[in-house]
């Protein structure tokens, strides 16, 4: 009879595109080279928007961001202009893989999967994520593990301050953080034979933001700096060493999935969405911004003459000042569609400083998602295939910036994450097809012989479940064959 209690290890490496892990830094990663020879690898296509929050939540629920109601790191509270909040695990109303496995009596250990603070209760251990406040005391469930976790490596860092001028310091802190995280992971792995063990490491994302222009000669602001180039190599070498030390503890019958939530790429610059909205007459200030980099919320807005305003980030979140919804709304509900069409058309005509098209792609949430829950922006806009960030600050007196308006930054996100699957008796050393991040959760459940719930929008990846165990409905939910028609992620 097929074993219905397999063991699964997920190594979540934030923001790594295939070309970095499988090529550029592979020369300093002997353990990764060995792992690649044992498994199959490929592109893991991420979701809209390609951001850590919500991408990991999508991966482990099988539900798109709109249905989850999570659109990024910051959400605007309904009826307000500036009141923002950060998503928490308690906002996720659909069960994650660790929820479903916990209900089925499986033992799980999850380290740092975002959104992860405050940490949820599972049948095992959950350590919160990089969004954890630095002084938080409630970062682990069960709570009595706190001192044990802190004692393993002497300290435990959730994140580093990476948009900083002292890049050498950032690099050293990244290496320390990653070593400590893996030390804790090895300690917990040895405590019991977990059914499911997942580790998230934010370090690669921070490295890319801090050091991309030093290791990528095609970066528009490439800078030859041997020390910083070597620091990037050193980080990937350290990451590989830590993975290798962990894998020494992992029996051969454990299925291993290495995955990233999205990719990264060189940042070309920022498009100042609110500067553009002011110049085009959609956003009116009572007095102009006189200091470069002034946040919109620090300025006096004439809401009686403002139809739209924006927020910065990897994509532009554009909000409409709708009558009856906002306190000082002026856009009649019947005029929203016309205003959206106008904004989309005008943004499509924006040219970069070199005269080429900005290639603005503007979506309403209902174009991207099966359903739209929570506090979504009215419009989601990508610029230059995401190579141009959105800058929400004002006072620049121009539409384009070479640097991020919130601090030094070398990289932005991309849609191409990665996967590397190693399984007992599976294919070895194979470069495989592209897969969707939505398909990971139902595939994980299928590995355990569990029926994916009907709400999951992905499909179990057939090539990952060959000769798997027969399915049983341990969750009390049934699966239908209907799945949401998918727009090619990142396309117009």
Output the CATH topology of the largest domain.
Answer: Alkaline Phosphatase, subunit A
Low-confidence blocks of residues: 474-492
User: Percent range for helical residues?
Assistant: 25-40%
Number of strand segments: 21
Descriptive account of the structure:
The protein is of the alpha/beta class. The protein folds into two domains: 8-266 and 414-464, 3-Layer(aba) Sandwich (Alkaline Phosphatase, subunit A); 269-408, no CATH class. It is 27% helix and 17% strand. It is built from 13 helices and 21 strands. The protein has helices at 18-24, 30-38, 52-61, 65-68, 97-103, 146-153, 167-189, 203-215, 226-247, 273-279, 336-348, 365-368, 440-447; strands at 8-13, 40-45, 75-76, 84-85, 108-111, 124-127, 140-141, 196-201, 255-259, 263-266, 269-272, 308-311, 316-320, 361-363, 379-382, 388-391, 400-401, 411-414, 416-422, 430-431, 435-436. The strands form five sheets. Strands 1, 2, 5, 6, 7, 8, 9, 19, 20 and 21 form a ten-stranded mixed beta sheet that branches. Strands 12-13-15-14 form a four-stranded antiparallel beta sheet. β3 (75-76) and β4 (84-85) form a beta hairpin. α7 (167-189) runs antiparallel to α8 (203-215), α7 (167-189) runs parallel beside α9 (226-247) and α8 (203-215) packs antiparallel against α9. The longest helix has 23 residues, at 167-189. The chain is globular, with a radius of gyration of 23 Å. 49% of the residues are buried.
